[in-house]
Specification:
Blueprint (H helix, E strand, L loop, with lengths): L3 E3 L2 E3 L21 H16 L19 H15 L7
Antiparallel strand pairs: 1-2
């Protein structure tokens, strides 16, 4: 890890870039051309802003969880109930 130094501070900025495609289309999958295009764009951006790409990783598959909202709601209600908070649906 590299640290940047100024007279009054020492710091390191590390960002995670998470890309979500329009209408949940696969974006970064090894089998698609979008993956290479995205990698090239990220590398270009890093050069423009004097950044450094440490790692680019793309998944091998993409499945949208169609029950995400239902599962999130159930989990949220469970947590609220566990804390003794009454929920009126």
């Amino acid at each position: 890890m590299e640290y940047r130094k100024d007279p009054h501070r020492v710091y390191s900025l590390i960002y995670d870039l998470i890309v979500i495609g329009k209408r949940r289309h696969p974006v970064c999958i090894k089998e698609t051309r979008r993956s290479e295009a995205l990698k090239i764009r990220v590398l270009d951006l890093s050069q423009n802003f004097e950044g450094k790409v440490v790692e680019i990783e793309c998944g091998t598959h993409h499945h949208q969880d169609k029950n995400t909202s239902t599962n999130s709601k159930k989990e949220g209600l469970r947590i609220l109930e566990e804390r003794g908070i009454t929920v009126i649906s």
